[in-house]
Amino acid sequence: METFSPEETFDIGVRLGQDAKPGDVITLYADMGCGKTVLAQGIAKGLGIDEHVNSPTFTIVQVYEGGRLPFYHFDVYRIEDPEEMQEVGFDDYIFGQGVCMIEWAELIEDILPDSVKRITIEKDPDKGNDYRRIKINAD
After folding, report:
1. What is the per-residue pLDDT across 101-118, written as a single tens digit (0 to 9) for each?
2. How many separate domains does the chain show?
């Protein structure tokens, strides 16, 4: 998919949130400034969560429970060893009944479940500052 504004990226997130099922794990691969948080905000909205969504860079995980399913938003950018994820109760979230979204998932590939929805967001400056190519693959 291609988007040409943050609003279009948000709308893709909304659709993902509306289609999400208990236990879904969404992994997100994108450079800084590609719209990961915008997509997460859309997913939360699609789940019926009205709370403001921020990237949990310093807390690793942010929990939102006000929607039809809990939303567990991970940012593992600061993780140096995947084993550190156990300190935040990663397995309880990842194998729970909510929806997990993991930014910088490449840093913890070894501990991810086999079945995930992989989303890659890429920029292309030649197509404009707000252009994004969004690829979604389900395992």
Report:
1. 999 999 999 999 989 999
2. 1
Q: What are phi and psi of 48, to 5 degrees?
A: 90, 20
Of 16, 20, 24, the residue nearest 41 (C-alpha):
16
Give the torsion sign (CA, 96, 14, 10, 106).
positive
pLDDT digits (tens, 9 = 90+) for 49-65: 999 998 877 789 999 99
Residue 139: the pLDDT is 63
Name the pTM for this structure: 0.92
CATH of the domain at 131: 3.40.50.300
Mean pLDDT to the nearest integer, 67-94: 92
Domain range for 9? 2-138
111: nearest Cα among 88, 91, 93: 91
